[in-house]
Specification:
The complex is a heterodimer of chains A (336) and B (235). Chain A has 336 residues and is mostly helical. Chain A has a single domain, classed as Orthogonal Bundle (ABC transporter involved in vitamin B12 uptake, BtuC), CATH 1.10.3470. Helices cover 73% and strands 1% of the residues of chain A. Chain A contains 14 helices and two strands, in the order ααααααβααααβαααα. In chain B, a hairpin with a 2-residue loop joins strand 4 and strand 5. Chain B has a six-stranded mixed sheet with strand order 6-7-8-3-9-10, sandwiched between helices. In chain B, strands 2-1-4-5 form a four-stranded antiparallel sheet, covered by helices on one side. The two termini of chain B are 34 Å apart. In chain B, helix 3 packs parallel to helix 6. Chain B folds into two domains: 156 residues, P-loop containing nucleotide triphosphate hydrolases (Rossmann fold, 3-Layer(aba) Sandwich), CATH 3.40.50.300; 67 residues, no CATH class. The longest helix of chain B is centred in the last third of the chain and has 16 residues. Classes of the chains: A mainly alpha (336), B alpha/beta (235). At the A-B interface, helix 8, helix 9 and helix 14 of A face helix 2, helix 3 and helix 7 of B.
Chain lengths: 336, 235
């Protein structure tokens, strides 16, 4: 079993599936659209995972940064008349810059104070978008966001082309996340997550590293937001709502917080689950709620996290045998 | 090398350390003896920069290091090996060690040498280099914690209760390794409750009670002190 379904083969299979998916549903724009939205949210959740999952800092301003990315693209293309690609790049940079400044202040607080503080920051971003009519269109939202400009012969008019565009960015985001987590930087974040004091005693500047992690995290959100604006072509203040950030958090927790495949598993699962429960409208939370409670109690590290825990237990059990062997050696007393 | 002058640390109204004076000379192995809650860990955390000084002065190699951030202290060559083998259980043994070399992360060749040195001191860690740290036994975890601290090439290493929770045979082994590390040129400041074992390897010692230094002297002086024998050695 291990030979065919190893990690590398599963990844190749998943990518192949993602590549041929539009061919299966070529005439179903709706399915493609849901899948594309799911990919966009996944990118954002990967960003959340780097900060909340690996660095241990739960920021509830994530939807706010998603909105900053979306509105940056929206405003720069509709009012600034900028090329989409330039607008997307600027949107990521604007999100990073905002994240840097807000992170500098927010990271002076710790644990639940940080979560509450960022929740308020996220809500302020929402209010700013909602009330600043002149710039953001207020509650009416921004309409008429153009589709991405063509690159040479490639145009982005069809749902399929948008799907592939977003898939490209999703793969890029996952690649970047994997590289970060497997690098010394990632292990530094994990060290901070485990214990800030311990990380400091190893010589890690925790303030600096948390800030960088925060900026990386919001960069993902900004990118996702920019793509979201181009896909839906209409954005309202609700992209910054707390409802949005708690959705991201739910995807992350169910998928597996602090795991590399968790964001993908959690987001795709919920996005499709939500579609099946569409007819219940807002009552679908009656089903999601208990699932979330069940997950938090029995699988606190999510679906993928549970899998890794089992793997570690197995190795530990193997080691226990050796320990028992040592214990059987008679111990001589050191007392004199 | 390290001189603490009248250091006082307060947590709110509670005075955890009052006017503690400790001096450690280069190459020495000094032990801080004291019961739980006496203030040994607070002394370490204050030297490391994790706790703020209320009063007093800390000098390292003739320079005042008051208010230095913890990462700065590690760069200066003062590293702490905290109590309770705080490791990264989900990382392998080798990755744990590499985290200890964080301040030298750009010097790849030096890290490789340090790693080889640590593996020479603790051959068991080399055998288990790709095991998760969380799967090691208590003694091995303590070795890993010490090995990780050594990766930063410290001038002074502070070990907080390395014998805690270990079987007597392992404790003996651990202390002889600590002695070897000290002989290799690293100054060691050791916090211990196990006075019997610690005084055997230490040059000098301080006895801490309720945040005060109540007694100090060479190891043999302390070992033969009646009060110490009664309170810590039980003979």
């Amino acid at each position: 079993m291990g030979k065919i379904f190893n990690q590398r083969n599963i990844i190749i299979l998943l990518i192949l599936f993602a590549l041929v998916f539009p061919l299966i549903y070529a005439d179903n724009r709706y399915v493609l659209h849901v899948m594309t939205i799911g990919f966009i949210f996944t990118i954002s959740v990967y960003g959340m995972n780097i900060l909340a999952g690996y660095t241990g800092q739960l920021s509830l301003a994530h939807a706010g940064f998603f909105a900053i990315g979306a509105y940056s693209v929206g405003i720069l293309t509709t009012q600034g008349g900028l090329n989409f690609w330039l607008a997307l790049l600027l949107a990521v940079l604007i999100t990073c810059a905002t994240g840097f400044v807000l992170g500098l202040i927010a990271l002076r607080t710790k644990t639940h104070f940080f979560a509450i503080y960022t929740l308020i920051v996220g809500y302020l971003i929402y209010l700013l978008i909602d009330k600043w009519d002149g710039l953001t269109g207020g509650i009416r939202g921004l309409i008429g966001i153009p589709i991405p400009d063509p690159i040479g012969p490639i145009t982005f008019e069809s749902a399929t082309s948008m799907y592939y565009l977003v898939l490209f960015f999703l793969l890029l985001a996952i690649f970047v996340a994997v590289r970060i987590v497997h690098s010394l930087t990632g292990r530094t974040y994990i060290a901070i997550r485990n214990s800030e004091d311990l990380a400091q005693t190893l010589g890690i500047n925790t303030t600096m590293n948390k800030l960088v992690s925060f900026v990386i995290s919001v960069a993902f959100a900004g990118l996702a937001g920019g793509l979201y604006a181009a896909l839906t072509r209409f954005i309202g203040p609700d992209v910054a709502s707390t409802h949005m950030v708690f959705n991201f958090l739910m995807y992350l927790i169910v998928g597996g917080i602090g795991t590399l495949s968790g964001p993908l598993v959690g987001t795709m699962l919920f996005i499709w689950f939500e579609q099946f429960l569409k007819s219940y409208q807002e009552y679908h939370m009656l089903i999601f709620g208990p699932i979330l409670v069940f997950m938090v109690i029995f699988f606190p590290s999510g679906i993928t996290g549970g899998f890794y825990k089992l793997k570690m237990k197995f190795q530990s059990a193997k080691n226990q045998k050796n320990v028992r062997h040592i214990k059987s050696i008679p111990v001589k007393s050191t007392k004199e | 090398m390290l001189r603490l002058t009248d250091i006082t640390v307060k947590f709110g109204a509670f005075e955890a350390l009052s006017k503690v004076n400790i001096e450690v000379f280069e190459g020495e192995l000094v032990v801080l003896l004291g019961a739980n809650g006496a203030g040994k860990s607070t002394i370490f955390n204050t030297i490391s920069g994790l706790n703020k000084l209320t009063m007093g002065d800390i000098q390292f190699n003739g320079k005042s290091v008051n208010g230095n951030s913890p990462d700065r202290m590690v760069k200066e060559g003062v590293v702490q090996c905290p109590e309770g083998k705080k490791l990264f259980p989900e990382m392998t043994v080798q990755k744990n060690l590499m985290m200890g070399g964080f301040v030298h992360r750009r010097k790849k060749a030096q890290l490789k040498d340090s790693l080889a040195e640590v593996y020479e001191i603790f051959p068991i860690l080399k055998d288990k280099h790709d095991h998760y740290a969380g799967s090691l036994s208590g003694g091995q975890q303590q070795m890993l914690a010490i090995g990780r601290a050594l990766m930063s090439k410290p001038k002074l290493i502070m070990m907080d209760e390395p014998s805690i929770g270990l079987a007597p045979l392992i404790v003996e082994q651990m202390f002889s390794i600590i002695r070897e590390i000290n002989k290799g040129g690293t100054t060691v400041l050791l916090a211990e409750q196990n006075a019997n074992a610690a005084l055997k390897i230490a040059d000098r010692g301080y006895v801490i009670e309720n945040g005060l230094v109540v007694l100090q002297g060479t190891s043999s002086e302390l070992f033969n002190n009646d009060a110490i024998r009664k309170a810590y050695i039980g003979a």
